[in-house]
Hints:
The structure holds 2 protein chains of 2 kinds. Chain A has 20 helices and no strands. Chain A is mainly α. In chain A, helix 10 crosses helix 18 (about 425-440) and helix 14 (about 330-345) runs antiparallel to helix 16 (about 370-390). In chain B, helix 7 crosses helix 21 and helix 8 packs parallel to helix 18.
Amino acid sequence: MVFNSLTFLVFLAIVLPLYYRLQHRRQNIMLLLASYVFYGWWDYRFLALLIFTTLFDFACALQIDAENRPGRRKGWLAASIAINMTVLGIFKYYNFFSSSLESALGRIGIHPDFPTLHVILPLGISFYTFLSMSYTIDVYRKELKATRHPLEFMLYVAYFPHLVAGPIVRASFLLPQCQRPRVIKPAEVENGIWLILMGYVKKVVIADRLGQIVDWSFAQPAPPFQNLNAWVVIYAFAFQIYGDFAGYSDIARGLAKVMGFELTVNFRAPYLVTNPAAYWRNWHISLSTWLRDYLYIPLGGNRQGSWQTYRNLMITMLLGGLWHGAGFAFILWGFYHGILLSVHRCLGWAAGSSSQATLEARRFVGTLKQFFLIIVFFHVTCIGWLFFRAGGLPHGVRQWPVVKSYLEAMFHLPGTIPFTGFVLPVVLLGGLALFFQWQNDRMNEFSQWPTSRKGTAVSAALAAITLLGVFEGAQFIYFQF
Amino acid sequence: MFGLAVIPFVAWTLWLTLGKPLGRVAASHWGNRLLQLGDGKFNDPALFVHMRLRDTAVLISTAAILALTGMMAAKCYQTRISPRLRWAADALVLFLGLNVFGAIASHTALFWCLLFTGRDNTHNFTQYQIKCALMAELVAPHEAVLLGNSQTHAEIDKRLLNADMGRHLWTTELHFPGSRPFDMLLCLEQLPAVKIDYIICYLSEGYFYSGANSEAAMFFMRFQDLGQFYECGGNKVDPGRYFTYGLLGDACPLFRLREPVISRLYGFKTLGLAQERRDQTLSVDLSERAKTAAAGYRIGPESDFQKRAFEIFAKKCQERQARLVLCCGQLNPILGRALNPALRPDMLAFLHNLAAHDTNIILLEESQMPVQTEDDYLDLTHVNETNQIRFTHYIETVLQKLLLATPTGT
């Protein structure tokens, strides 16, 4: 079930009234069942996998909590991580690694025949395994007490707003909300409604429309345009993926708010920053902080000298790239961002710009240098998006030649050919995406707006969705991860 | 508030006093240029300008009245509902107002003309609406309408027809608003109440046997058509999502305007990208393509549904006193050969039976029409220009005979 489908609206029309009528414990039971229906609607067979990993991690956490011997505790943690990684490995990475190994060995004259697994990737598997795994790690670190109520833990993992595409909410943040009765605050319901509407605008008005341009362009045998027009296609993808993923996160947060829950903020203003470190504090925040806390810092972070810091950065970003998908283009994307972060760290690029992006956004208005750096860094990000988009090419299409041909087209000089008809939609919709980023803080404070502005904004959002939306039930890009 | 109340009076007074003189002045200065831009959609420039000024008055008055109503409504509910919910009421009123404005604006030619971006770069529904809205302004002793899918458009050139016999019979091509009989039925019911003498359709197997799901439903389906849908046997077919979109469009007029507005705002090409990608996956070999296409043609509940719809369509034409000229047309012979051989006899038997019981129908037999071979086609359904000219001349002779046979024939 996708948020932008009629089925989901019907689902919501049943779930929400029921939710408001029930008491806390029954609310949890109903939400868990609803979440399983939401997930099973796509393919009910994978529900078993979801329930298995959830219960396994629940049991591991209980054992870790009850155990005092460090070796045993570590053993249970290893078991939890091993099971989660095995599930991910089988469903997501096995075919990629086996075929890569086959072709690598083929080059030195060895021709092994590894079996190919004919399995489809379970929806949102990377999200819920990371979510579940972080819980056992937190319990192991004694940052969290293991819950003794399987229902609450199952709801934490399967809660439908975040289940298939995040945000990856920490157990310490969401689990207590499952455990105690929730208070529905009118102001939060208002904020939630606005977040849902804004999320739909980002998804169906911005992302899905730009997606048509991007998909068409990448379906051509060669880049259809040169120089600036080729950049326009990559800009379109940059705004598409922002609209798609930030839209999903907004809808998820909005849905949670109308039910009295709170999910973590996942996006701020990623295209209004001046450097890669700030970018990762604004883009997919729940993943970047997850990688920081559970990978980068355990690897040693920046405490072991410069070279180790660069090594840790590269490992973290490479694995971050691999998290997004089993393919060289995603690894390349991770590598590219690892290099950017390392170079930034090495040169102290745009020193002093590590404050919040929204503050930067305000500051840049008066600073030409900031403005220039934002534009430069946006283009740097766009090159990364080219790798990322190549990762989503259909099976059988070789990714590197596509990346190479687009890079050649983008840097083909001189840029004298006229603009294509795609410039206008990209400028208009990209402008709207940037507006949402620029006004990010205000967008999260809807309940404090004057009444007239609220009414105008809501009707404008409704009109935009109705008049300019794409209603073909396009999937969210991050579902595949 | 007073200012808003005065606006409609001012707008209409201005139109009533200055509309006609301004129309005449504009026609005397730019008449030929306007006719050229109109591309046959109207033939009296003074009337065209006069009526567009009326459309302007309609749009201005509607906006003013809606703003006034909204303000009055806000005054009423602001004391009755909780301050915390006032924004929701404001949003609802505004959104409703926008929809009402959209619904009213979509009945004016001016609104659609604003969405026009050239003959080859404008959404079909925009072109259809402009042609429909301007039909009432045509000045001709007799009027004919070409109704049907893009095959009708490809076979008959309305410019050629109007150049040759426009003084006696003006032909309007509605920019292929429907691809199947149920679409044509929906479309017929929404045509303006003007006297139409002939409705010309070029029929082929594609109309009856290629399913029930049609994009046209998105633009034409209304709740009031549900009865007709079930009367045709709609409960036995899957009408697809466009049918639901049509009903949504009826409930929320902004939704109906979606594609034309997007086409105007983002460019015509942007809207057709998904279709272009689908077309790119088609085989270049017409025989291969014909085999794939033929698999979608069958006799079944869908064809029964379309036939029933066509029967009602014929009946409605008779009620409108519009003679129905049916061409027993064909597809590219490559596709024709790939189709189930039972389809063509079934279609012909249906049309003959219909014509036998309805004197309003003029059935043009395949044997009477110019022969079309594989070489006459650009693809599986559309003929080339040479054949279009040939077929248009044939239709011209038919229409001339019909005109001579009518009591007021010229």
